[in-house]
Design a protein that fits this description.
Length: 163
């Protein structure tokens, strides 16, 4: 369904049930400093990606900053979780678009203020064209919000809007 390989997922789930130790997966990222605040991020055997900061924060703006990658990873993880859950229910997907935005107080990062230095007021917007009703989409999205590993890692309340 929707080009998701559920046969492999089911085999993985069966293996985890037989050996619960298989449920734990270590994810590894390596960051190597290049210059200034430019860093090369390597994950598995993929091509490295650059990490930088905008010029006002001391960078050269040649690549997204870590917060942008975090926001992107959170949106991507939510989208995948929603897509898998909808597909498991037999819902055909025509299009799924997820937008995430969050604030960050740069004054805390720069040591000018005390306060929460993490992302603040995160908001997700889901626009899904599917064979499901808006009520079904909202129900699946609410569950995906609670099941997305990256969102769970943020440990902050996420505001969700389903359009």
């Amino acid at each position: 369904m929707n080009n998701i390989n559920f046969k492999t997922v089911e085999q993985t789930m069966k293996a985890m049930k037989e050996d619960p130790k298989l449920a734990m997966k270590k994810w590894v990222a390596n960051v190597a400093w290049k210059d200034g605040v430019q860093n090369k991020l390597t994950i598995r055997d993929f091509n490295p990606i650059m990490v930088d900061e905008p010029q006002p924060l001391g960078g050269t703006d040649i690549a997204p900053n870590p917060v942008e990658y975090l926001v992107g990873a959170a949106a991507g993880c939510f989208a995948i979780t929603f897509e898998v859950m909808a597909s498991q229910k037999g819902i055909e997907l025509e299009a799924v678009d997820v937008n995430m935005e969050a604030d960050l107080n740069a004054a805390v990062f720069l040591g000018l203020e005390d306060g929460d230095g993490g992302i603040l007021d995160p908001k997700l917007k889901l626009n899904a064209k599917t064979s499901a009703s808006k009520t079904e989409i909202k129900e699946i999205a609410e569950i995906a919000l609670l099941k997305s590993p990256v969102l769970l890692s943020l440990k902050t309340k996420i505001e969700l809007t389903v359009e």
